[in-house]
Amino acid sequence: MKKKFLALALAATMAASMTACGGSSAPAPATEATTVAATEAKASEETTTEGAAETETEAVEAKAEITTVTPGKLTVATSPDFAPYEFYAIGEDGTPTLAGFDMELAKYIADYLGLELEVVTVDFDGVLSELQTKSVDLGMAGLSPDPKREGIMDFSDLYYMGGQSLVTVKANADTFNTFEAINKPEVSVGAQIGSIQMDLATTNSPDADIVALPKVTDIISELLAGKMDAAYIETDVAKSYQKNYPDLEIVMDVPYEMEGSSIGVCKGNEALLAGVNEAIAKALEDGTMEKFIAEANELASGEKYEGLLDDAGNAQTAN
Ligand code: ARG
Fold it and tell me: Taking CA atoms, which of 135, 155, 233, 274 is between 20 and 30 Å from 52?
């Protein structure tokens, strides 16, 4: 279940891309210019006051070195079950549009790099495998820089700080509100397949009946239908769905070490990683990211579609 979604055409022509990130070939050759630019970009984030002009020049060189799976395009995988990060907002004409601050940031990065954005929507475990097989350039899905994923992708700098929660419904808020209370075989505890929430479930609730579902929106439905007792969900996502479904209740914070969201970058694509980090730094610095977050939160409290679109781009009636 995968749909290519052409989001924005910002195409400034990219000169002859060399080997794409994907395919069977080795990672894009790192020329000296790329390596220097990447190092400069990193250094400039740590000491923002130094060498801004020099970094600008290097940035231009770095962009020219960037290769992507489809030349001229930035192909980004996402999993739109994760408001306010990524979700389908229902427009005035009733059609679902891919929205969320990850999607706005994706457009911003594509624009920054002079590439045309193409978004591929899959379930979250699909985002991981698209990166692993180097079928996409980036994975933008509120992705945690989990060290276990280091073998299959590189991580950008963090662009958002979130947290983890245990979620249930109001009627059960006094029952399922400690790790102890939910760590029982008769208690069903949900988490999204492939996510770090799955690890939180197996670590904190090893004796519970752990239910792994492909979409966070499936988990929310199960909770609301009383088919699931509790679930591990990213805090801001839980808060966002809670606005539409006030019956949801966040019962406790769940500690997690690698807090924060980063972008998964096709492994070994140093020039792209450097470019992405530059764009993130810029968006964080000039208030753009803040604006994206505010807008996404606003949109996410309106009507939204939960699930993936079918191949024709329409909302699926049954999921
Ligand atoms: N932050 C968690 C992780 O990286 C969950 C991300 C899920 N994202 C999504 N769009 N459903 O594992």
Answer: 155
